């Protein structure tokens, strides 16, 4: 009789342990649902994407993309008269950008194997995000006589909306390998 009571108590304890509900479910790469809210990990930050308990979908301000011109930066440390110009638009968790490099017509000959880093800074001057571009990824824009006019790069980088909102200026640095 004692064995039957002991077995029934063990079964009751084990069945109550399996009733524990895990409220976190991974639904995609770096995306999960926790307590009826959808989250995504971007730049080591957890960003709430939505709430499954509400009937309406809230429109985010970052869903209204606007092109932002970050302006031109002098690259005299590479070559006197050289400049970089950066324009970007933020959609979802991606910053799409277009960079023009002018005055560096001999770029591939002199810096083959190197690259450029675009460093995004906040209003205090801290680097909050960075992306690198290899020299061989730059597009060479040529004129009528096959002379280099400029180099161009169209790219994208993943960042959270909080990082995007904090971007004040950018800087360019270069590296050799």
Description:
It is a single chain. The chain is of the alpha+beta class and 177 residues long. It has helices at 2-17, 107-111, 161-166; strands spanning 24-28, 31-34, 37-42, 45-51, 68-74, 83-91, 94-102, 115-121, 127-134, 139-142, 148-158, 169-175. The protein has two domains: 2-58, no CATH class; 62-175. The chain has a five-stranded antiparallel beta sheet, with no helix packed on it. A four-stranded antiparallel beta sheet has the order 1-2-3-4, with no helix packed on it. It is elongated, with a radius of gyration of 26 Å.
Low-confidence stretches: none
Q: Name the helicity range.
A: 10-25%
> What string gives the helices and strands in order?
HEEEEEEEHEEEEHE
Regarding quaternary structure, how should these chains be classified? single chain
The counted number of beta strands is: 12
Produce a short descriptive summary.
With 177 residues, this protein is of the alpha+beta class. It contains 3 helices and 12 strands, in the order αβββββββαββββαβ.
